[in-house]
Amino acid sequence: MFFAPASITCFFTPEFGKSHAETGSYGVGITLDKGVRAKPADRLIFNGEEIDFPTVKYVLNALKGKGVEIEADFPLGCGFGISGASALATAFVVAEEKHLSMPYYRLADLAHEAEVVNRTGLGDVVCQIHGGVVARLKPGCPSKADVEKFLWKLKLDVVVIGPLSTRDILESAKFSIGKECLKEFMRKPSVENLFIQSKRFAVETGLAEDVMDVIEAVESCGGMASMVMLGNAVFALNGYEALKEFGKPIRVGISSCGVKALDF
Amino acid sequence: MFFAPASITCFFTPEFGKSHAETGSYGVGITLDKGVRAKPADRLIFNGEEIDFPTVKYVLNALKGKGVEIEADFPLGCGFGISGASALATAFVVAEEKHLSMPYYRLADLAHEAEVVNRTGLGDVVCQIHGGVVARLKPGCPSKADVEKFLWKLKLDVVVIGPLSTRDILESAKFSIGKECLKEFMRKPSVENLFIQSKRFAVETGLAEDVMDVIEAVESCGGMASMVMLGNAVFALNGYEALKEFGKPIRVGISSCGVKALDF
Q: What class is the B152-253 domain?
């Protein structure tokens, strides 16, 4: 069994290169201590059900795997990078099952490619293989991207309001501001500044409209919050009580680790 | 509190560059699930005692830290990279304590520099910040080194026979064979081949002389073993029973992770 962490994207700017390997994003993501656990199976099972999951299927096809059983702590399509984490954990499960002796970054590159091809993510996998709060300074697949990261001891609260399609938004919105937020964040990499830049991105792209009341509720109680990119969800620091009004908050820690081998 | 994993070097070739950042080693190391835990303190304490520990002192001086309390699972000087792990964990502890907002690779580079200056290690820190079985394909400090890694599910047994001075050996022996072992390992990256190349290195450098009987005892029981570089110690797969004759074996797992933030 392998674990791959879920992640929250705070802000980003997509980069569409000539190849899948050159496609990715600038931005900052937070790796969580919740995520997905995957083990070998005959079919593709996600949280107990057979589902159509093209991103994971892409990995299975590439490695000639029959199936995988995935148990996820968050639903798909809510901005927690579950498609990337599922692709990633699947790659490790099949590589081990089939004794492929493929190294970490090659498996990670494959999961990234699966995301790019299926337009389910552009930077989640890069974040998820490192752990911590990950700044993607140069976009691309995991073996080519440049990152820096921070191991901050934080508990965050997240609340999911509903799903949002990454694919539609990636094609319509303008995200150039993400690169500016990244630059400002790296100039002063602190928790406070991470929230400031995250909210700035959410507001200036116009994406935060539907969750602005949630963010403001947290702020009026003295906490900090922003929108999970890309999900109809909010992440907050010191916001548990305020979030309760909008759904059931889930408390998460920041994971120090990327993919983990379990049960050995 | 921060955790930094201990590590075993299987084989290596030192590279002395023009700067600390260009100095490091080629080779393969195994990151362990045991290591050091460090927390803020007024003095430098290692396993309950005030000791002279120049590598850690170097980090404290660089970050203007007063002290650190380190609890280590292995003794110093036996080949488990405890000096590197201690320097690494210390850097994270002081950076957090003093709100330095320094990122992961900068702290790791500092720990590497502390090792290079004090000649206590050339590649341990690079291995320890990644987790897994780490191949150092291009030497240098953590932010410049090129690595690939493997998340293998293995339990190993190690037995410590006595200390060995890294400093003396680094200056006397010839290690060019390490690069060849690395090339052969990457050609076929498997557990078996890792032991084959490790033993080849240990034998061809002449270092294994004193522990050859231990390695052979493991092999005659159907296991695989080689010498911990650089320590008067042996690591083995399926070797617990055979090792018991030579000391008290310690069972270790491979860590998937690098430095971890604890207690939050």
A: alpha beta
